[in-house]
Amino acid sequence: MSNRQYIPGDETRLMTIQRYIAQEERLHPEATGEFSTLLRNLALAVKIVSREVRRAGLVDILGRAATTNTSGDEVKKLDVFANRMIINALETGGQLCVMASEENESVIPIPEEFPCGKYAMLFDPLDGSSNIEANVTIGTVFSIFRRVSDGCRGTEQDVVQSGVKQVAAGYIMYGSSTIMVFTTGNGVQGFTLDPTIGSFLLSHGNMKIPAHGNIYSVNEGNREMWDEGFRRYIAWLQQEDTESGRPYKARYVGSMVADIHRTLLYGGIFAYPGDRNNPQGKLRLMYEANPMAFLVEQAGGRASDGSKRILEIEPTDVHQRVPVFMGSAHDVTTAEEFMAGKR
Ligand code: AHM
Ligand code: MG
Questions:
Q1: CA nearest to 184, candidates 127, 145, 140
Q2: Cis status of the peptide bond prior to 247, with omega within 30 of 0
Q3: Distance between CA 284 and CA 272 in Å, rounded?
Q4: Which of 192, 253, 276, 293 could form a disulfide linkage to 310, CB 3.0–4.6 angstroms apart?
Q5: Which residue, 284, 273, 246, is CA-closest to 102?
Q6: What span, in angstroms and rounded, lies between the C-alpha atoms of 210 and 199?
Q7: Whether 150 is catalytic
Q8: What are the structural domain ranges in the chain?
Q9: Minimal CA–CA distance to 145: which of 193, 107, 106, 89?
Q10: Same fold, 11-204 and 215-339
Q11: 25, 34, 52, 73: the active-site residue
């Protein structure tokens, strides 16, 4: 299949998300079209979220909503809007059997009046929400599984599956442009929103992460609370050794979507380790770690919880957290070696 990229000015070579999915479906004669409809509906929802993110400074939807989410984090109004937008756009289509959102305590059933389908979707509607008011990049993360429960209306069983079972995952980053990056298990593709025509166009075909990089991305304010192995690893990255490309550069946006996007493009390592106060770290397995791990692996990188593959973790709770180390294969392996006391 041709993943030819959009060259600005060459309007004859546009590859939209729809065209890409249609091409993919032709490789699977058994495909019913349900999945492409699901992605189309998601793309529409996030275009509207993107519009609201861009207008956020102009209208009075910024600021704290009077609530906290199930993980105890503060919820901002844009989170509430994005959450509602995605639910509304996807519950009516007939492709999903159930949803789960980082912002909702319980799974989100598909109302009886709407048809239900064979997929289950989890999402973090606006990740990096502490950055909203500073006009810093934020994003949406999604993860899609096949229904495994009996019956048409899904249950928690459908959204608490191990990451290796994901059929698709991706993120939408609301940065200087809006980009949707996703995988269906056949490489990673990035589509940039052209606001003048309202379409996502292939801009980053078959993304590959460099085998090693020279950037580390972690909240170093937590250093004192980290395990000794990880502290030694970061200290080692900061030592000068021109032959092995050290010292590494430090880059940390504090929006996982932005930090992972940069890591996919430039390589290096993104980490949110456990620490003595939060042994499982901060990031959620089902909403953040699994979808990003699927993307990073599909781009040729590695995603670990410190000792094993994130995608192989058997989840027990839809909101559980997990330590995260992902990025260039070489860098993640070195971090694991330090944490295992081998270096
Ligand atoms: P959120 O889902 O409440 O926005 O939290 C997740 C975010 C990630 O995007 C980011 O990697 C991390 O939290 C940053 O946390 P910290 O501020 O502790 O560095
Ligand atoms: Mg969030």
A1: 145
A2: yes
A3: 11
A4: 293
A5: 284
A6: 29
A7: no
A8: 11-204, 215-339
A9: 107
A10: no
A11: 73
Based on the residue annotation, tell me whether 126 is a catalytic residue of this protein. yes
Q: Which of 339, 341, 342, 343 is nearest to 325 (CA)?
A: 339
215-217 sheet: strands from edge to edge = 249-250, 215-217, 269-272, 324-327, 302-304
Contact 19, 39 (CB under 8 A): no
When the candidates are 1.10.300.10, 3.90.1640.10, 3.30.540.10, 3.40.50.1820, the CATH number that belongs to 11-204 is: 3.30.540.10
Closest residue CA from atom 14 of ligand 1: 254
Domain 215-339: assigned CATH number: 3.40.190.80
pLDDT digits (tens, 9 = 90+) for 264-299: 999 999 999 999 999 999 999 999 999 999 999 999
Among the bound ligands, name the one nearest to the CA of residue 130: 1
Averaged pLDDT of the chain: 91
* pLDDT, tens digit (0-9, with 9 covering 90-100), for 95-123: 999 999 999 999 999 999 999 999 999 99
Active site residue 11: no
The pTM for the full model equals 0.93
User: Are the C-beta atoms of residues 144 and 155 closer than 8 Å to each other?
Assistant: no
